Amino acid sequence: MSYQIRIDNELYEFLEKEAEKHGEIIGEALRRTLESLGVSVPPKKRRTLFAARRSELYRWPILEILVESNGEAWVPDIKEKLLPKISPHLTDREKTARKSKRPAWWYDAEYERFEMVCEGLIDGTSPRRLWKLTPKGRNHADRRKPAVV
Q1: CA 56, 59, 64, 66: dihedral to nearest 10 degrees?
Q2: How far is CA 25 from the centre of its chain?
Q3: Which three-class secondary structure state does DSSP give residue 131?
Q4: Could you tell me the sign of the dihedral formed by the alpha carbons of 97, 116, 140, 34, in that order?
Q5: Cα end-to-end distance, the chain, whole Å
Q6: What's domain 49-144's architecture?
Q7: How far apart are CA 119 and CA 47, in angstroms?
Q8: What is d(CA 29, CA 103) in angstroms, rounded to the nearest whole number?
Q9: pLDDT 10s digits, 62-92
Q10: Nearest to 104 by CA among 112, 49, 116, 48
Q11: H/E stretch holding 20
């Protein structure tokens, strides 16, 4: 869950530069800065087994689709390309069930996209229905590419 806080421009610019320098989102830069000063910061929450499975199932196919689309793609194109990539790994129930009036598999893909936005891999400010990689997301995807022999 995200919260909105108000900070002065100078502090925000400092955190923004720190985050950019280390390839982080601003929240990670703030956490790292506070920890370096010896401030007791609550540990990050661990993902549930379901969240870990969702990440494992959807993250790399989404990144792959975005890389193949020059870093950005519209939702209908992503949906069309994603299902064939993940379908062999879905249970019959996951293929047919619905969550919030949407196919369950797509609901989970959208939730994984949200997680990727929170981690700074996908741009959360891109136009509605357009998923766009950030430089951090592109670097993350590049690490997954197989080496050419």
Answers
A1: 170
A2: 11
A3: strand
A4: negative
A5: 43
A6: Orthogonal Bundle (1.10)
A7: 13
A8: 36
A9: 999 999 999 999 999 999 999 999 999 988 8
A10: 112
A11: helix 9-22
SS (H, E, C) 23-64: CCCHHHHHHHHHHHCCCCCCCCCCCCHHHHHHHHHHHHHHHH
The per-residue pLDDT for range 91-101, each reduced to its tens digit, is: 888 888 888 88
Please give the helix or strand (H or E) that residue 105 lies within, else none.
helix 104-118
Enumerate the domain spans of the chain.
7-44, 49-144
Rounded to two decimals, the pTM is: 0.65
- Are 133 and 139 in contact by the 8 Å Cβ rule? The answer is no
Residues 42-46: contacts with CB under 8 Å, at least 24 apart: none
pLDDT score at 48:
62
**Three-class SS of residue 74?**
strand
Residues 106 and 27: their CA atoms lie apart, in Å, by 27
Cα–Cα distance, 47 to 45 (Å, whole number)? 6
